[in-house]
Amino acid sequence: MVSIHSKWRYFFMFLGIQLVVMALLSREGYQKRVSYFIRIFRKPDTTLQSGRNHTAAGIPGGDVYANLSHLSKTHSHANDMPYCPKTSPLIGGPIHVSFPSGLTLADVQKKNPMVVRGGRYRPPDCEARHRTAIIIPHRHREHHLKFLLYYLHPFLQRQQLHYGIYVIHQAGNYTFNRAKLMNVGFREAMREEEWDCLFFHDVDLIPEDDRNTYICDSNPKHAAIAMDKFGYKLPYKMYFGGVSALTPLHYLKMNGFPNNYWGWGGEDDDIGVRVSLAGMYITRPSLKVGRYKMIKHKLDKGNDVNPKRFNMLAKTRTTWKLDGMNTAEYETISREYLPLYTNITVNIGTEAGLHPPPPTRPPPAKAEGKPEVKVSAKAEGKPAEVQAKGPAKLIEGPSVI
Ligand code: BGN
């Protein structure tokens, strides 16, 4: 029979063991576990500064600038640096994306002290395994560009890439041509450095997970597979819009992108069709990783829906070799090496050519087909250097890289 005394003895022994276990646990992050349970009962934090936050779909998202502060300029880019690890230790997964008012390019610059002239970066403590150029077609979207730069710079640094950001700015007010600007970006970026991968990036899409690595695959990659505006799903199987990644070889194999899609729509489908016509296929990251938040906006002035896109798309099979990188004709107006990006302003002309003839009859109120090549190389923040280049005519084939 167990006496009352021995019952108490067992109780105190049990209590003692509990105390020893707790003491041991507290040495190995017990506090972390306790704070984890406390956090479950707390309201989610909504400030931008917090370490972890929640994305639109309730996935916890971290501060894109976390982990980067220890990188310092004291590292020297020595010749004998080891290669960076295959998987960057700085990668943290989901990123919290919000668009705080009052953010300026000067703030973005302050947060990215390791980014150098023209928006270039190399990891300070290891030799990057990949060299990626980001090509961003742009006009009148300074507000979006600021947010994209705020997120993209630390995102790419976390991936330990050697990278450069190129903004290709369409001069004048004629209808926007996204795909032709990409052809310009390809040519101009490759002229400067031997990039091994090019990311063609819409200005209004912010990546939400840094496991979506900005490196190329063995086939053209469609990175923006899950956008918030499509409910984080692919809108249709052949979709190739938003953000895509190609090596220079992929790009030339498909004769680049079409030059003749003026206005909104269809050009990304044409590019997708070119991939398969050139004997390649589209690769994609997982839906969990290829997530993007779109900065909301209305359809731009100067980027009306292109009514010809259905007919043009039906003919891609016969046009892709005749129109593309081998016929991209443009004039470089200026090249500015700004602190956060290289800004290249170009005249890409109109459907009627680079210098369409003036109308013979008195022009109507709104002269269609007449480009007003008024260059606005204005960008927020002071240009570090402006190298006025043009207008120098550049009509080049794919052999000239
Ligand atoms: C498609 C557009 C794409 C656009 C996506 C997503 C066309 C061609 C007609 C078949 N394609 O419909 O350009 O990126 O929607 O918005 O309009």
Description:
This protein folds into three domains: 4-41; 105-347, Spore Coat Polysaccharide Biosynthesis Protein SpsA, Chain A; 368-401, no CATH class. Strand 4 (131-138), helix 4 (142-158) and strand 5 form a beta-alpha-beta unit. It has helices at residues 4-27, 30-41, 105-111, 142-158, 178-192, 248-253, 267-277, 309-314, 316-319, and strands at residues 52-54, 60-62, 120-121, 131-138, 162-170, 197-201, 205-207, 221-222, 226-227, 243-246, 291-294, 329-337, 342-347, 386-395. With 401 residues, the chain is an alpha/beta fold. Helices cover 25% and strands 17% of the residues. The strands form three sheets. Strands 3, 4, 5, 6, 8, 10, 12, 13 and 14 form a nine-stranded mixed β-sheet that branches. Strands 7-11-9 form a three-stranded mixed β-sheet. The model is unreliable at 26-51 and 367-401 (pLDDT under 50). 38% of the residues are buried. Bound molecules: 2-(butanoylamino)-2-deoxy-beta-D-glucopyranose. The site of 2-(butanoylamino)-2-deoxy-beta-D-glucopyranose (BGN) has 9 residues, from helix 7 and helix 8. It is an enzyme of class 2 (transferase). This is Beta-1,4-galactosyltransferase. Pathway: Protein modification; protein glycosylation.
